[in-house]
Amino acid sequence: MRILVIDGQGGGIGRQVVAALRTACPEADVTAVGTNGMATSAMMKAGPDRAATGENAVIVNSRSADVIVGPVGIVIADALLGEITPAMAAAVGQSRARRILIPVNHCDNIVVGADTQSMSRLVQEAVRLIQSL
């Protein structure tokens, strides 16, 4: 299974996801793509198979992924303080991959119920869903 993890800003969510996937799905082919160098660097510390940075990396890797996972903002143009370009959001939204979106209430995008669970619990649930695919 080809899993694409996308994150921006500091890459903390992506790093948690990559680390959890390494433990729960060691056979998975995990690619980490950050919207900026800091996010990519953070995710690289968790041990993905490969990593890249930027808009084109999101677009290209969205084409071949079986699963895309990241904060809900990866499908919203101008989210993550403007780091998600319209082209990135479209690439993720139009991908044939299954999307596992982690609810995060930031940048004026409010997901009802997102504040009821800790981030570590949300990451665990995302990984559990990926395992069930």
Salient structural properties:
20% strand, alpha/beta, 133 residues, globular, five-stranded parallel beta sheet
Description:
This protein starts with a strand and ends with a helix. It has a five-stranded parallel β-sheet with strand order 3-2-1-4-5, with helices on both faces. It has 133 residues and is α/β, with parallel strands linked by helices. The chain contains six helices and five strands. α1 packs across α6. The protein has helices at residues 12-24, 37-44, 55-64, 79-82, 86-94, 119-132; strands at residues 2-7, 29-34, 50-53, 67-71, 98-102. The longest helix has 14 residues, at 119-132.
How many distinct beta strands? 5
Q: Beta-strand level of the residues, as a percent range?
A: 15-25%
Low-confidence stretches: none
What is the CA-CA span between the terminal residues? 9 Å
Global shape: globular
Total helix count?
6
Radius of gyration: 13 Å
Order of helices and strands: EHEHEHEHHEH
**Lateral strand order in the biggest sheet:** 3-2-1-4-5
Mean pLDDT: 93
Please estimate the helix content. 40-55%
Structural class: alpha/beta
The largest sheet, given as strand count, sense and whether it forms a barrel, is:
5 strands, parallel
